[in-house]
Design goal:
Order of helices and strands: HHHHH
Strand content: under 5%
Number of domains: 1
Helix content: over 70%
Number of strands: 0
Distance between the termini: 21 Å
Oligomer: single chain
Structural class: mainly alpha
Radius of gyration: 12 Å
Number of helices: 5
């Protein structure tokens, strides 16, 4: 369960970072890896912390807003990607 929750959160963070920073930014790659491999999460957290504070806040806010506004997104990422009807 907690591994799925981490995957959901890091996927949302990666999407927000991609929108804000561009797909080629190293932080985006680190967050994408973290969504798939829990062992890489400390590196992704470090990559996020290395950004300027304004970028960190914007990315966290965007990820939070996505997950808050679309609870089904949690379910879509949880348990193999099945979205509820």
């Amino acid at each position: 369960m907690f591994e799925d929750a981490g995957r959901v959160m890091f996927t949302a963070l990666a999407e927000a970072a991609r929108t804000r920073l561009g797909a080629e930014h190293p932080c985006v790659a680190a967050l994408e890896r973290a969504a798939e491999d829990p062992a890489t999460r400390p590196g992704a957290e470090a990559a996020l912390r290395a950004l300027p504070e304004a970028e960190q806040v914007a990315i966290m806010a965007a990820a939070h807003a996505r997950l808050r506004s679309d609870p089904a997104a949690w379910l879509a990422l949880w348990s193999g990607g099945r979205r509820p009807n």
